[in-house]
Amino acid sequence: MTVKRVSPEEAEFLVKEEGHVYLDVRSIPEFDTGHPAGAYNIPLLHATPSGMRPNPDFLSVVAAAFAKDAKLVLGCRTGVRSLRAAQGLLNAGFETVVDQRAGFDGTRDPFGQLQEAGWQDAGLEVATDAEPGRAYEALLGRKPF
To answer: What's the whole-model pTM score?
Structure first.
């Protein structure tokens, strides 16, 4: 299945004008340092002392938090994890999943030069506190809405 990929500005439009929900799949510490305002956080990978580890509950927590017909925009740091998560959700039966391709921090070439600005560098609204019910801990075991 091909995942639709959009710019940060297109992602913001989908959220603000088309009723999509922004799902940040970065780790909890990454999300806590700054994220798109209003985003939900369900990590695809967890940060551990020995590096990033897969979140075995990712699909079940997303399925408990969102109906299969929910309109989701996924984002991460650079667009790699969110693309992988989007493919997984589409394969699991979610109907409308879009990947925000440049993530929060943007994409860089092998020399560290910015190729595409991410959410933050595009000047879009950023928050450091999760809205009530949108942090990962609050989403564990939640029923679909």
So the answer is: 0.94
